[in-house]
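Structure ticket #2291
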Amino acid sequence: MAASRHKSKILLLCFLALLATGSLAAQTPRKTTDAKAASRLSVADVIKLSKAGLSDDLIAQEIRKNGQAFDLSPDQLIQLKSASVSDRVIQTMLDPSKADPPPPSPPPSATIPARATSDPLLPTDIGVYTKRKGEWTEVLPEVVNWKTGGVMKSIASAGIVKGDVNGHLLGPHSRNSVTTPLEFLIVVPEGTAITEYQLLRLRRNGDNREFRTVTGGVFHVSGGATRDLIPFEGKRIVGRQYSVVLPANLGAGEYGFLPPGAISSANAASSQGKLYSFQLLE
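Resolution: structure written out below.
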């Protein structure tokens, strides 16, 4: 009888122990879940953090700590926007696992073609320059005495008045001497084209030099006005600066660049102008 009672007590104690263990096991997840729920931010918490002036980075970091997405209703979305919560924070609330989008790229600025700039070593004053030992040297102009080459004539078919003029320079040689390669820089006046310049061959006449050219850009071929004219090409560097490279087989002698407007009056018996002369040595 005593043994039977003792056995019953043992069974009762075991049952109570199992019951207690099951109760604790059932209560542990609930406590954990309650703790997580207590640490989770609410919509009101997000609004409060935003109004407190916290940055979007900090608010998003707090939302990601929980790792659970907000199930936002339309009313809650409106509530968040009305409280000036940024779209970035709202997107983090909806999907905390999604990485932040990269910041928007600044709008591309209008592409402005790079404006050609002149080499600071290039001369900018109006004139003619020649390169010596890698540096630009000014070709000093000479005074030209002009005389008309005869009576002004007209072409009946075109009705164009034309005339050739003779230029005279004192002295047998130019004070500007150059050697090959013949590289020049011409800085033209504003509104002037390089094609308005003439390259002329000068001829000895006793102790002086002379040449013949035309006025008005109309060649008086029958009078030999083109005999001293040498064609050349000028390539624009930038602005009013032009590069002129003459052929190496030009031949030794006296030459000069005649600028536009060098003849003050073609109708006058005589007048003066200027010529950028140079002597090409052997």
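Closing remark: Residues 2-39 form the longest helix (38 residues).
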